[in-house]
Amino acid sequence: MGKETGPGELVAAGEILKMLGVGRSRFREIRRHPAFPAPYQELSVGAVWLKRDVERYIREHRPPRPADDDE
């Protein structure tokens, strides 16, 4: 018997907020962007996305944040 594999790691809004470094209201705006991935599934507790889709969106559509320079 082979190991069953799922769709991949899933993330909900709370994890995506941290990935993007934004608050809930800004995330609602970002989510409306046409390039933002559609949820993988809508559950009774909210939407979930494939983490790889969100990471790809961040790579392609979010500018890198400047590093903190203590000097």
**Which strand order spans the largest sheet, edge to edge or round the barrel?**
1-3-2
Question: Between the first and last Cα atoms, what is the distance in angstroms?
Answer: 58 Å
Q: What is the mean pLDDT?
A: 89
SS elements, strand count: 3
* Secondary-structure content class: alpha+beta
Proportion in helices:
25-40%
- What percentage of the residues does DSSP assign to strands (E)? 15-25%
Instruction: Give helix and strand order, one letter per element, not per position.
Output: EHHEEH
The 3D shape can be described as globular
Q: What characterizes the major β-sheet?
A: 3 strands, antiparallel
Low-pLDDT regions: none
Radius of gyration of CA atoms, rounded to a whole number = 15 Å
**Count, helices:** 3
Protein name: DNA-binding protein
Organism: Micromonospora chalcea
Give a summary of the structure in a few sentences.
This protein has 71 residues and is α+β, with helices and mostly antiparallel strands. Helices cover 38% and strands 15% of the residues.
Structure notes:
This is DNA-binding protein. The chain is of the alpha+beta class and 71 residues long. The chain has helices at residues 13-20, 24-31, 51-61, and strands at 10-12, 41-43, 46-50. Strands 1-3-2 form a three-stranded antiparallel β-sheet. A hairpin with a 2-residue loop joins strand 2 (41-43) and strand 3 (46-50). The protein starts with 9 loop residues before the first strand and ends in a 10-residue tail after the last helix.
